[in-house]
Write a structure and sequence with these properties.
By secondary structure, this protein is α/β, with parallel strands linked by helices. It is built from 15 helices and twelve strands.
């Protein structure tokens, strides 16, 4: 699962990505510093994994992960190919969700591609380019579908109606992600890799004072826009995150404490991205390994077992399940079983966030 980090040039995307992944992506003060997308695999912070690790003292602890992709800065006209826009939009098509970094700090030493600081304008530029790119894709598909629909094919007529609805929404300035979609619409969006249908969070990149509580009018404007869209907003300081990334864990904790912060802003970004993709975590525990696993919300027990090994899904018999809270409260799987808190679940069981699972299978 990949989240693409997008935004205008010089808003702090690559600096944020470097801090997020320690991948060393280039971050310089000029547009189009990033050409090819950089990919970083990031551990998802989860206090529950630490607690389970302390309970079992396993040989290894394995967190679940998520991928972030640093995509080059878009500019006005990207949908028409401006600033290598076609190439960059193609990179966005490949990700599952979008994290849009918005500049909410003022620094005369860092240039802005449009000459002034206006985060709402910046968001509208990016979102409009995504919409225009989608419109071109949909209209091209519509021409093909319309020719096929003339023969009276029911499937093509239904698709034509959906495409016309999408066009009307975009021309009215709306985004496809805000629509209540049916299965046929979802399949078509996936097939066409439509950009404005991808889930999105906004990341407000601020200075240190704003992060530590000083009111930032620019952030509030982004917050208002995000609330209207039903989108999530995370406030971070890419500069501070970059400083923290150079420290070891103990130094980082002291640095955060000195600033009066409980956690890194990047931890909030990662969790927000995880939630944005509709993901949940289940755990497997034992003396050899304590491990977190990722599945989509609504996954069945066999599907979760398949994340560990395809044989487990193919030969699934049942799952032994206890909730994280019940395991911690009782102190062990044996005690949870004694108290009737360890359940046997079948093929139709839907995995819940925090489930501790042991899968029985036979192949």
């Amino acid at each position: 699962m990949q989240i693409g980090i997008v935004g205008l040039p010089n808003v702090g995307k690559s600096t944020l990505f470097n801090a997020l992944t320690n991948a060393g992506a280039a971050a310089e003060n000029f547009p189009f510093c990033t050409i090819d997308p950089n990919v970083g695999v990031v551990s998802v912070p989860d206090e529950r994994l630490e607690v389970l690790n302390d309970m079992y003292h396993p040989k290894r602890k394995v967190p679940t992960t998520i991928e972030f992709v640093d995509i080059a800065g878009l500019v006005r006209g990207a949908s028409r190919g401006e600033g290598l826009g076609n190439q960059f939009l193609g990179h966005i098509r490949e990700v599952d969700a979008i994290a849009q970094v918005v500049r909410c700090f003022i620094d005369e030493n860092v240039t802005h591609v449009d000459g002034s600081i206006d985060p709402v304008r910046d968001i509208e530029i990016i979102n409009m380019e995504l919409l225009l790119a989608d419109l071109a894709t949909i209209e091209k598909r519509r021409e093909k579908t319309e020719r096929a629909a003339k023969s009276g094919a029911k499937k093509e007529r239904e698709e034509l109606a959906i495409l016309d609805h999408f066009i009307a929404v975009i021309e009215d300035g709306g985004s496809l992600r805000q629509l209540d979609l049916g299965e046929q619409e979802k399949r078509l969006i996936k097939e066409l890799s439509l950009l404005s249908a991808k889930p999105m969070i906004y990341i407000a990149n601020v200075d240190e004072d704003s992060l530590l509580g000083e009111n930032n009018e620019l952030v509030e404007r982004v917050r208002d826009l995000a609330q209207k869209e039903g989108a999530e907003l995370v406030t971070v300081s890419a500069k501070i995150e970059a400083d923290i990334a150079e420290l070891d864990q103990e130094e980082a904790e002291l640095f955060l404490a000195d600033l009066g912060l409980k956690e890194r802003g990047l931890d909030r970004v990662i969790r927000a991205g995880y939630k944005l993709l509709g993901l949940i975590t289940f755990f497997t525990v034992g003396e050899d390994e304590v491990r977190a696993w990722t599945v989509r919300e609504g996954s069945t027990a066999p599907q979760a077992a398949g994340k560990i090994h395809t044989d487990m899904q193919r030969g699934f018999i049942r799952a032994e399940v206890v909730s994280y809270q019940d395991l911690v409260q009782t102190g062990s799987l044996a005690k949870a079983r004694e108290e009737g808190l360890l359940r046997l679940e079948g093929k139709d069981y839907l995995i819940k966030d925090g489930d501790i699972c042991h899968f029985r299978f036979n192949v």
